[in-house]
C-alpha cells in the first residue's frame, strides 16, 4: 500500500458502510473548529411567496428556546437553522414551521443513530421476524435488522424521537430479552476508573474539567463505581490527554489518578452463561427424567426387579405411576417453564414457534397422564397407561439439543473472534525531542494510543495500530489480516496495519489510525454487519416458517383424530394396539410425535449459520463479503469485468527490458541515464532511474557520487536533457531525439516499433548526439492475472476488460492475460453502461476495480469487487472488498460464495429432510406394515438432531481452502 500524501494517511482504510449521518455545509460565519454543542439543519419550505413569509418563519422559529439563529431564503425556499440539541430537537423546529402554515420538504433525518442489541430467547425464524416487527413499530426507528444465528439486532433510529431504552422496552414487550451492546456514540469512547475520590464534589470537579477540555463531546459519571465514560473527537484529543486532564484537576490535598478500565466482554460472558444455563437445565432434567424412563421402560421388562412398581396404593393407583408423576412434574413446570413463557409471548404476538409445539406436545402427554392418575385413584376397575416418560424425556432431549446447538453456534463466529483478538494489549510509546531523537520509552495500553504517537515495534511484536513507518526496515507478516502468507517488506513511508506481526527488523511507526478507525476494527465491523444482513435465500425459510407451525398443529390433530376414529370404529385390527394401550392413547402418541418432530428450528438456522461462518472465513482469507446478499449474488456470476490500470496491471510504470546499441558500454548508458533522470519527478522517469541503478549494480560497482547535471531541461511530453560532465545527454521519446537532430537508424526504428506493438513506451537515451540505448517501459501485468483469467474460464466464467486507456495498449494487455473481449477508451459512466448492456443480455456481472472512476461500474454490477489497496470510494461502492492487491481473491470470493450457497442448500435438505421424512413416520405410516412407530421422546431427539446437524454442516465451511494460490 503506497503512501499518496498526508491527506490519504488521515483517511480510514475501510469506511463504515453504516454511515448514514447527514453532512450539512455550514453557513458563513460559523466557527470552523465546530461548536460541538450547536447543530445545524437545512430544509426546504414550500409556499414562501415573499420576504414577509420568510420573516414570519424566522420570527416564529427564532422565539424557540434553544434556537441560535434562523436564515430563510425566500428565493430558494430554503431554511438554515442552528440550534442547541440539549434544549430543542429538529422535530420541534419542523412542527413550528408547519404551525406557521407552510409545508416542510426535504427535511433530513437529523443524526440517525445506530445501536446494537443482544436479543435473548430467539428459537427460530418466526422469533427473529417478531423482534424485527416489534422494532419497526417503534416511532423513530428507521431500519432494523435481526440476526438469528448472531442473536443480535442492529437498529437505525432518530434520537430526537426515540432512544435505546425505548427500543429495548419494545423488544421486552414482544417477549424477548434485550441488552445494549453498543450505541453510535461508542465510536470514540474511553472508560476510566478514578482514584482519590472522597466526596461527590470531587466528581463534579473532574466532570467540569473534562467538559471544558477541547474535543470532549460527552462525559458520563458513575458515582458509585468512581468510573467515568468519555466520548471524544480523536482529531483533537485522546485517552492520555483525558487522563492528564483528570490529574490536573486535582489541587492541594486532592490528588486524582485515572487508570484505563475495560468493561467485561459481555458477548463472550453471555455465551458462556447461556451454555452453562442449558447444560445445568439438561442435567437437572436428566436427574428426574432418567428415573422416570427406568420406571416406565426398563424395570417393567425385568421381573421380578420391577414387580414392586405394580403395588397398588389406593384403588388402581400403583407405586410406579405415582413416582413417575412426582418426578415428571418439576421437569414439566419448573425446568420446562421456558417453553410456557415462550409460547405465551408467541401467541400474544399472534405467531407460533418451536415453544408452542413443544408446550402443546408435552402438555398433551402430561395432562392425559394426570387424567390417568386421577382415574386410577378414583376407580377400582380402571386400567390405563400414563405417558409421563414422554413429557420428561422430550424436554430433556430438547434441552440437550439446545445445549449442543449453542456450543456449535459459538464456533460459527470463531474466525471473527480470532480477528478481534489480533491487536496486542500493550505498545511501546516513544517520546522524541525536536530533532527526532528518542528521549524515553514507555509501555502503555494500546487503548491509550493517540493519533501521531510514535511507537517502537521490535522483531516478533505485533503492530498495535495502523500507521506509517518513519524509521527502520523489516518484513511484516500480514497473513492474519490479508491472508497473504509471504511477509511484506516495509521501509520508511510504507503503511503498516494493526494486528500484523513484525518479523525481523525494528520499526518506528507513527500512528495514523487508532481505536475504531483501524483497518482491523473496520474489518470486524464490516463482517459483523454482513452477518446480520439477511440473504435472499433465507426468505424461503421465513415463508415456510410462517405457515409451518399452524400446519403442523393441524397435521398433529388430524393424525390423532384419524387413528382414534379408525380405532374406535374397529377399521384396523385390535392386535395393532399394544397391550398396555387403548386406541385413544395410541392416537395421542402419534399426534404428539408429529407435533414434536416437525419443529422448524433447523430451517431458521440453515442460512444464517452458513453466512456467519463464510463471512468470518472470508475475512480471515482477505476477502470481505458485505452480507448474505452479496454472498448469494456472487455464486451466480458468469461474467467478470476487469478494470485495467491497478487491477489487471500493477498500476505503476516499470522497465521490462533494456537495449544497448553499438558503440557504448552498459556502465556508460546506466551512469548517464541515472545522472539525467535523478532530477525528474515523472513516474516513468522514476521507473527508468530505478532500473538503470539495478543494471549498473549488475555490471560492476556504481560510482560513489552521481555526477551533477548542468543546463538540466525538462521538455514536457518528450523527456529531459542536460550536460553530464562534458557530455550532452538526452533521455526521452522519438520526438525529443528528432527535435535535437539525433539520427535514428533502422535498428533503433525496429526496436521502437516492436516495443510499441507490445503496448510499451520506448524511452531512448542519446549521448553526444547518438542513441546509446533504450528502455521499454510499461505498466506491468500482475503475475497472477493470466492464471486467474484461465481459471475463471475453467469455472465457466467469461472475462472482459473495460478501460479508459487507448485501444493498442488495452488489446496488448488483454492478449497477454488471455482476455478475448475488450472495451477501451471508456469513461467512468461508459463503464457502467457497458455493464448494463451485458446485464440486458442476461449476464450476471461482477466488476473488479480499484479507483474512483470504477465506482459507477461497481454499483451497476450485480457484484462489485474492490481491490483493497484502492480508494475509499471504490471500497464503499463495492459488495466485496479484496483486502490484498491480488486477483486470486476474485476466484476465492466466487468460489467461497458457490460453496456457501451449496452448503445452505444442503442445510435445507437436512432441515426439511427431517421434517418430510419424520412427519409421515411420526404419523404412523409405517406402523401398519412394519410395526415401527416413533415414540414422542425419540421424535424430540430427531428434532434436536436436525438443528445440530445444520449447525455442524455450516461449521464444515471452516475448513474452506482457496482454490488458487500462488507461491510467488
Automatic annotation (TrEMBL):
<dbReference type="Pfam" id="PF00122">
    <property type="entry name" value="E1-E2_ATPase"/>
</dbReference>
<keyword id="KW-1133">Transmembrane helix</keyword>
<keyword id="KW-0406">Ion transport</keyword>
<keyword id="KW-0677">Repeat</keyword>
<dbReference type="InterPro" id="IPR008250">
    <property type="entry name" value="ATPase_P-typ_transduc_dom_A_sf"/>
</dbReference>
<feature type="transmembrane region" description="Helical">
    <location>
        <begin position="313"/>
        <end position="335"/>
    </location>
</feature>
<dbReference type="InterPro" id="IPR006122">
    <property type="entry name" value="HMA_Cu_ion-bd"/>
</dbReference>
<dbReference type="InterPro" id="IPR023298">
    <property type="entry name" value="ATPase_P-typ_TM_dom_sf"/>
</dbReference>
<dbReference type="InterPro" id="IPR006121">
    <property type="entry name" value="HMA_dom"/>
</dbReference>
<dbReference type="InterPro" id="IPR018303">
    <property type="entry name" value="ATPase_P-typ_P_site"/>
</dbReference>
<feature type="transmembrane region" description="Helical">
    <location>
        <begin position="282"/>
        <end position="301"/>
    </location>
</feature>
<keyword id="KW-0472">Membrane</keyword>
<dbReference type="InterPro" id="IPR036412">
    <property type="entry name" value="HAD-like_sf"/>
</dbReference>
<feature type="domain" description="HMA">
    <location>
        <begin position="188"/>
        <end position="254"/>
    </location>
</feature>
<feature type="transmembrane region" description="Helical">
    <location>
        <begin position="908"/>
        <end position="931"/>
    </location>
</feature>
<dbReference type="InterPro" id="IPR044492">
    <property type="entry name" value="P_typ_ATPase_HD_dom"/>
</dbReference>
<feature type="domain" description="HMA">
    <location>
        <begin position="39"/>
        <end position="105"/>
    </location>
</feature>
<dbReference type="GO" id="GO:0005524">
    <property type="term" value="F:ATP binding"/>
</dbReference>
<dbReference type="GO" id="GO:0016887">
    <property type="term" value="F:ATP hydrolysis activity"/>
</dbReference>
<dbReference type="GO" id="GO:0016020">
    <property type="term" value="C:membrane"/>
</dbReference>
<feature type="transmembrane region" description="Helical">
    <location>
        <begin position="386"/>
        <end position="404"/>
    </location>
</feature>
<dbReference type="Pfam" id="PF00702">
    <property type="entry name" value="Hydrolase"/>
</dbReference>
<keyword id="KW-0813">Transport</keyword>
<keyword id="KW-0186">Copper</keyword>
<dbReference type="GO" id="GO:0009626">
    <property type="term" value="P:plant-type hypersensitive response"/>
</dbReference>
<feature type="domain" description="HMA">
    <location>
        <begin position="113"/>
        <end position="179"/>
    </location>
</feature>
<dbReference type="GO" id="GO:0140581">
    <property type="term" value="F:P-type monovalent copper transporter activity"/>
</dbReference>
<keyword id="KW-0479">Metal-binding</keyword>
<dbReference type="InterPro" id="IPR023299">
    <property type="entry name" value="ATPase_P-typ_cyto_dom_N"/>
</dbReference>
<dbReference type="InterPro" id="IPR023214">
    <property type="entry name" value="HAD_sf"/>
</dbReference>
<dbReference type="GO" id="GO:0005507">
    <property type="term" value="F:copper ion binding"/>
</dbReference>
<dbReference type="Pfam" id="PF00403">
    <property type="entry name" value="HMA"/>
</dbReference>
<keyword id="KW-0067">ATP-binding</keyword>
<feature type="transmembrane region" description="Helical">
    <location>
        <begin position="356"/>
        <end position="374"/>
    </location>
</feature>
<dbReference type="InterPro" id="IPR059000">
    <property type="entry name" value="ATPase_P-type_domA"/>
</dbReference>
<protein>
    <recommendedName>
        <fullName>P-type Cu(+) transporter</fullName>
        <ecNumber>7.2.2.8</ecNumber>
    </recommendedName>
</protein>
<feature type="transmembrane region" description="Helical">
    <location>
        <begin position="937"/>
        <end position="957"/>
    </location>
</feature>
<keyword id="KW-0547">Nucleotide-binding</keyword>
<dbReference type="InterPro" id="IPR017969">
    <property type="entry name" value="Heavy-metal-associated_CS"/>
</dbReference>
<dbReference type="InterPro" id="IPR001757">
    <property type="entry name" value="P_typ_ATPase"/>
</dbReference>
<comment type="similarity">
    <text>Belongs to the cation transport ATPase (P-type) (TC 3.A.3) family. Type IB subfamily.</text>
</comment>
<keyword id="KW-0187">Copper transport</keyword>
